């Protein structure tokens, strides 16, 4: 079986390289309801994602800095480069993944290795790390994540317990769920879907597009739920379940539905999870996954 990732893996020499590629691939794939080349929103263009990918990769490159400091640098640089919070969710997901990656040897890249390393990273976050992440969220003014229950992003750093805050938010935000679950949900339910669709199609962009709809069918997109309510998010999930991945007209119909006039149905959390999955797949040899 041809591994489509190999065409890119040999060009990746660092976690930063993989960050850049993962972000670009996710943004380039023609995913339903998302921005991609030739399909901008009124206030968001494909070039914004390209700029964000570059500045995020640069921010993550300095392994001498704490990972949460690099996450804050990435959020700040993205805001300066694009005047948007276009990749906050990606930054929140990639931070722990990059830190785990930096601790692993090339021979230690099976899913269980990733999970063990991630648990160490997440358990090691201190109040300063929590404040860095909260500052990144505040910088981006993310809807639904600006306040996490009783913990406000403007609290002094000595009061921030990042993982506790994410645990309290996990029911309404799937990115918070990854922090709460040690990324187990991600490795059990997201990475396999993205990998299997890409391998099955033998093409990165086609596989990403199909994985996007499959993930929408399997779980509610929590960004849609926060913006529009659970009933609307459930309707998106139901429509995705009814969409045939092999039918061009049905895929186009779902895309048109998700491109509501104000783009409030943009399934952004699902796209963020795909970018993170691409990072892992680019950094993990194919033989490490068991079919």
UniProtKB/TrEMBL annotation:
Keywords: Transferase. The keyword Transferase applies. InterPro entries: CitG. The keyword Transferase applies. This is ATP:dephospho-CoA triphosphoribosyl transferase. Coiled coil: none annotated. It comes from Rubripirellula tenax. One of its GO terms (molecular function) is ATP binding. It comes from the Bacteria. PANTHER family: CITG FAMILY PROTEIN (PTHR42280:SF1).
């Amino acid at each position: 079986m041809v591994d489509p990732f190999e065409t890119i893996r040999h060009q990746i020499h660092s976690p930063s390289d993989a960050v850049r590629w993962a972000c670009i691939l996710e943004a380039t794939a023609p995913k339903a309801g998302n921005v991609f080349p030739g399909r901008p929103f009124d206030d968001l263009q494909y070039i914004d994602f390209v700029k964000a990918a570059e500045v995020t990769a640069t921010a993550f490159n300095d392994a001498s800095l704490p990972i949460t400091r690099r996450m804050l640098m990435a959020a700040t640089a993205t805001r300066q480069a694009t005047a948007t919070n276009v990749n906050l969710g990606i930054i929140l997901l990639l931070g722990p993944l990059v830190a785990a990656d930096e601790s692993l040897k090339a021979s230690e890249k099976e899913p269980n290795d990733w999970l063990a390393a991630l648990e160490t990273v997440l358990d090691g976050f201190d109040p300063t790390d929590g404040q860095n992440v909260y500052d990144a969220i505040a910088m981006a003014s993310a809807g639904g994540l600006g306040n996490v229950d009783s913990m406000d992003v403007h609290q002094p750093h000595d009061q921030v317990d990042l993982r506790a805050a994410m645990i309290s938010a996990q029911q309404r935000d799937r990115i918070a769920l990854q922090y709460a679950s040690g990324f187990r949900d991600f490795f059990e339910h997201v990475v396999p879907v993205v990998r299997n669709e890409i391998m099955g199609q033998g093409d990165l962009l086609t596989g990403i597009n199909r994985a996007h709809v499959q993930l929408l069918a399997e779980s509610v997109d929590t960004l849609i739920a926060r913006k529009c309510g659970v009933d609307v998010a459930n309707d998106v999930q139901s429509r995705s379940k009814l969409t045939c991945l092999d039918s061009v007209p049905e895929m186009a119909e779902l895309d048109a539905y998700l491109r509501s006039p104000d783009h409030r149905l943009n399934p952004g959390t699902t796209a963020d999870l795909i970018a993170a999955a691409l990072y892992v797949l680019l950094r993990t040899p194919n033989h490490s996954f068991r079919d």
